[in-house]
Amino acid sequence: MTITKSVTFIAKEGCEDKMKELLSAMVKPSKAEKGCLFYEIFQYENDRKRFMAVETWENEAALDGHKASAHYKVYKSSYEPYCEDKYTDELEVLGVNYG
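Structure tokens predicted for Antibiotic biosynthesis monooxygenase (99 residues):
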């Protein structure tokens, strides 16, 4: 069963560029991972402090592999000083068949 989630980040005031840099660095290596079906980072045009990662993984094993990757560990150990808030939502994808 596929897993799709959105992760919202709110950058601290003045930290938008650093947050953008850290999150952007995740895109290419994440897309190259086994089991990654979709991975994009968005920055809100009407609120430049707000970012959203939207990702879809083939299954729990693929998501676990992502969380064990070197680039994920760099992000995980680096983002907190620049982030005011972060929350994750599980999503149901409508009208798309990844199987």
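DSSP finds three helices and four strands in the chain.
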